[in-house]
């Protein structure tokens, strides 16, 4: 099983006047129509690149790279490696997490085929994106293959040390030894309508050899093993020695650690499913002397709060404010609802009858998603 979603980022400006800032005008790029042969070649290359990334995210001796554990914590392990097939100055880092989620849940976070989805994607995974333009749509999601789409894009990202980078991405669903998985692969490519834009735009062109996200079902039921790999040539000041290597590497490590935020993004996505509860459905705070989840007694140091999803009365330690798609302001929700342990349409009185006070283990109540 192989479903595809992806993009190859590039472009060619026909404007005679270079813009002074981003974003560029919507009509800045004028791309000729691709021939059927060119389209087929891009689809084939995207498929091969995604398979290649999955292989390079294997951390044990069966993979093509030898990975060294650089740091370990409760939420992420960071690895480094040297790829003998690439120039010595190419950075190669990977971050590995374990997340409670399905493949479909994770893949949904990366969808960009509508304006609202693209806005959420940029907030979650592309906060350093200065500008981006979709140049070609090669395949769209369908009911049969909802995760399959291919796009050719041009983007500019702010990189460690103040540089800029043009890049591409492509996404696939796959099976690995009977385990379902999903990959978002990022590779650079040459496109005839996209020469180097440094002279006209001041954009330093970097190169992604292989980078992106890989999620595969783990040995632990209901969990995925997620890997974010970054393998790139930054070019510009880094390669010329104008920017200290430790500055660039520190920025790459921050980017790698970003995969641990997926716990929060998944919970935001779950909480965004279904409506929020109105005040008339809240449990009366006067009837609750203890937190519905941890059973601690309310008092001056343990304040009461309502969950906007189930309506129960919980403490602030067992709830957090979340950024949800249906609300312009942060919404407080309990950890049980964030973990999907309470049905989205379960109102307060139904929850009172069906769930015990200690329904969530204490180690699952932390907002950072560590287990």
From TrEMBL:
Q: Name one GO molecular function term.
A: zinc ion binding
Q: Where is the FYVE-type domain?
A: 285-337
Keywords assigned: Metal-binding, Zinc, Zinc-finger
The UniProt entry, under CDD domains, shows:
FYVE_like_SF
Concerning InterPro entries, the annotation shows: Rab4/Rab5_effector, START-like_dom_sf, Znf_FYVE, Znf_FYVE-rel, Znf_FYVE_PHD, Znf_RING/FYVE/PHD
Signal sequence range: none
| UniProt-listed Pfam families | FYVE
> PANTHER family attached here?
FYVE-FINGER-CONTAINING RAB5 EFFECTOR PROTEIN RABENOSYN-5-RELATED (PTHR13510), RABENOSYN-5 (PTHR13510:SF44)
Name this protein carries in UniProt = FYVE-type domain-containing protein
